[in-house]
Design brief:
Layout: H1 3-34, H2 39-70, H3 83-101
Length: about 100
């Protein structure tokens, strides 16, 4: 496995972890609405939100790095986009679209 393959694999792992934290954050937000005075839920919700933001930034940075590697002008190799790269770029586009229209998860 070359550097690009490892980068794609690491990006997929980060995205899966990010999706898990999105679900955990949504769970805490739902429970906080049901029990508004619970201090532990407030702390857990804030912590998961911070982790989710950091993972989202890491995912966006990794995809930006993938795009830089793919479309580097002085690259001697032909441009080959496999299934994993297509999936990553599709997920990145979907995340950017959701952020642009303002859906908060």
């Amino acid at each position: 496995m070359n550097f690009f393959g490892i980068l794609i694999f690491f990006t997929l792992i980060i995205k899966i972890i990010l999706l898990i934290f999105i679900l955990i954050h949504a769970y805490y937000k739902y429970n906080f609405k049901r029990k508004p005075g619970d201090y532990n839920l407030i702390i857990k919700e804030k912590n998961t939100f911070k982790i989710k933001q950091n993972l989202d930034l890491l995912f966006s940075s990794l995809v930006a790095l993938i795009l830089i590697i793919l479309f580097f002008p002085n690259n001697k190799n032909d441009l080959v986009i496999d299934k994993e790269t297509k999936r990553i770029l599709f997920l990145f586009g979907t995340v950017l679209f959701i952020k642009d229209i303002g859906i908060e998860v």
